[in-house]
Amino acid sequence: MKLVSGRPENTEGRLDKEIRVYDFLDSLGITYERIDHEAAMTMEACEEIDRTLDAAICKNLFLCNRQETDFYLLLIPGDKPFKTKYLSAQIGSSRLSFAKPEYMEKYLDITPGSVSVLGLMNDHENKVQLLIDEDVLTDEYFGCHPCINTSSLKIRMEDLTGKIIPALGHEPKMVKL
């Protein structure tokens, strides 16, 4: 695995949704580093990627209420346990659970294992509320997938909070878990 700067030179065989991420980041003038790797489906698989990136990769959890009418994307440190009751109390939504993959695809154009804050660029109807655990913001760099789990990006936290999130048009709600 090798860390490289910016978008791939050869985009052949890459999905449109991944290319849209690079176009989006480039349009904002964001500098980022990228690593290509085998599909990373678990936090354990992400550990080696984390070491190469030298950035904190957080868990990205796609959640919904019991009625499946409210959807949330929660960014939480990878090593922090997630307990729904603590989150439910802070956002005023009981009975949170993981949302079905079809909602993930419908609103974020992402499949399980590829969930990323960058998927919010595909949520044109603003159906998904961005929730960020305050501990995510303590690192200098942020690691995430470009809407596909065979690459990972290293982005400055100040670019995430100062440029990317505002451009996504999803006002984040800070939570403490």
Structure summary, number of beta strands: 9
Q: What is the helical fraction, as a range of percent?
A: 25-40%
Number of domains: 1
Helix-strand category: alpha/beta
Distance linking N and C termini:
33 Å
SSE order = EHEHEEHEHEEEHE
Mean pLDDT: 92
Total number of helices: 5
| CATH architecture designation | Alpha-Beta Complex
What is the CATH class designation?
Alpha Beta
Assign an overall shape.
globular
Q: Indicate the multimeric state.
A: single chain
Stretches with pLDDT under 50, minimum 5 residues: none
What portion of residues belong to β-strands?
Answer: 15-25%
**CATH H-tier superfamily:** YbaK/aminoacyl-tRNA synthetase-associated domain
Our Rg estimate from Cα atoms comes to 15 Å
The biggest beta sheet reads: 9 strands, mixed
Report the CATH topology name: YbaK protein
Explain the overall architecture.
A hairpin with a 6-residue loop joins strand 3 and strand 4 (about 70-75). The protein has one domain (about 5-175): Alpha-Beta Complex (YbaK protein), CATH 3.90.960. The longest helix has 12 residues, at about 15-25. With about 180 residues, the chain is of the alpha/beta class. It has helices at about 15-25, 45-55, 85-90, 100-110, 155-170; strands spanning about 5, 30-35, 55-65, 70-75, 95-100, 130-135, 140-145, 150-155, 175.
